Each structure stands twice: as structure tokens, then as C-alpha cells.
Amino acid sequence: MGKYSTDKKQEIRKEEIVSACEKLYKKMSFKEITLKEISKETSFTRPSIYNYFQTKEEIFLALLGEEYRKWGKFLEDNLSGEINPTAEGFADFIARSLSDREQLLKLLSINYYEMEENSRLERLTEFKCVFNKTFEVIKKLLHLYFKGITEKEEESFLFAFFPFMFGIYPYTHVTKKQTMAMEKAGMQFTTRTVEGIIKDFIIKYFK
Question: What is the pLDDT of residues 139-188, one digit of tens each?
């Protein structure tokens, strides 16, 4: 009973830290956020955070894992729904599933490599377990929408789509400063929606 109570308290405190980071990330940049800033949004001190996370990258990785978990749950919950077994049907479903996942896409646009590199193996493994569950759900969807898809075709799509996700946010959320810079550089740029850019990618990929 004592161990269960302690483990539960640890999970609650970890969730509080991750939630504080999420709150800050809605109004501050990754670079601006520090462990000190995160501690101000929690009920305990900065030194206490080190009992759960040793770097801010570990906290961001946990937040990214939570976003993957939410996305994966949405996909899993809709596996048994009515489907249109075409590239267009698959593209529409995936695009809709990510249209409200702005936080996930925003997190993927920061230095993903640094997040993983500056996290302990324990925390990185926790993240990979969550990520793998989402990865497996996408595999199930591919077999639902594309009967007879081969293992090689499945792998090819997965290793094209997941890296592609890293660039969705920057191309769909352009700042005023970026717009001004592109205008001065003489660049032609049309803002895209999350659904639009994902649908185009998937449909063109399967054609």
C-alpha cells in the first residue's frame, strides 16, 4: 500500500511538472523556458524537480510523449469506424486526426534530436514506448485502408511520413516576422492548413 501510494504521488508530481511546461510553452519559446520558470508554475521548488527530471529536455520529451499518447488514442478509438479504403480516405482521416494536435506538431518542430540526446535512457525509453504504440496504430490503419499492402510498402510510408511531420508546423504557422522577411526576400509563399498539407502529401505519396 505504501509503495503504491508513493508511486502514485510521483506520477502526480511528474504530471504537474509536465503540465507546467505545457502551460509555459503556449506563451514562451523552448529556448526561454528553464527549470526555474517551470518550478514557478508548480507547487514545489526547482531542486525538487530534479527528483523527477534532470533536464528541461526530459520534461519536453515527456510532454511530447503525452501528445503522441493522445493522438494514438484518437486513432485507436476510431479503428473500428466506417472507412473509405482509398488513399483519399486515409489522407482525410490522418489529416483530421492531426488538425487539432497543434501542440504535437509544434513540439516536433523544435530540436527533436537534442530532446532525446539530453534525456536519460530511462526517460527516453518511456517516450519510445509511447511512440511505438502510436507507430503500431498507424500500421493497423494502413492495413485497413490498403488491403494487401506489403511490409516494404508499409515501412516506406512510415519512414516518409513521420519525418515529414517535423516540418508541418513551420509551414502552417508562419509568424509576422517570417512573412515580412519572405516579402523582403522576394519569396512567394502561400500559407497552408494542417489538413491541406497532410492530404496533399499522403495522396501524392500513394499515387
Answer: 999 999 999 999 999 999 999 999 999 999 999 998 899 999 999 999 98
For the chain, which domains are there? 1-52 (1.10.10), 61-167+194-206 (no CATH)
Answer yes or no: are the C-beta atoms of 58 and 21 closer than 8 Å: no
**What CA–CA distance (Å, rounded) separates 24 from 36?**
12
3-state secondary structure 12-48: HHHHHHHHHHHHHHCCCCCCCCCHHHHHHCCCCCHHH
Extract the residue ranges of the chain whose pLDDT is less than 70.
Answer: 1-5
Q: Taking the alpha carbons of 8, 10, 11, 15 in that order, is the dihedral positive or negative?
A: positive
Nearest to 108 by CA among 70, 174, 60, 156: 60
* Distance in angstroms (rounded) separating the CA atoms of residues 114 and 117: 5
What distance in Å separates the CA atoms of residue 63 and residue 70, rounded to the nearest whole number?
11
Rounded CA Rg of the chain = 19
Alpha carbon of residue 20 to chain centroid: 17
Q: How far is CA 63 from CA 2, 107, 128, in A?
A: 28, 8, 13
Answer for the pair 85, 147: CB distance below 8 angstroms, yes or no. Answer: yes
Distance CA 15, CA 11 (A): 6
pTM confidence score: 0.90
The answer to whether 171 and 192 are in contact (CB under 8 A) is yes
